[in-house]
Amino acid sequence: GLSADIEIVKCGEIPRTEGKAQRVLDLRKGKM
After folding, report:
1. Given pLDDT bands bounded at 50, 70 and 90, which one contains residue 30?
2. Do 19 and 13 form a contact (C-beta atoms < 8 A)?
């Protein structure tokens, strides 16, 4: 989870804070 999050953040597609929150929600939804 963290690895993917960091990789996505590295891409610089979205801000770090907002990106992280959105990514976490996305990953949580996908996993669930």
Report:
1. confident
2. yes
Residue 26, amino acid: D
Q: How far apart are CA 28 and CA 11, in angstroms?
A: 20
Amino acid (1-letter code) at residue 13: E
Residue 19 tokens, joined: 């990106």
What letter represents residue 25's amino acid?
A: L
DSSP letter (8 states) at residue 12 = T
Specify whether the CB–CB gap between 14 and 22 falls below 8 A: yes
- Please, which pLDDT band fits residue 3 given cuts at 50, 70 and 90? low
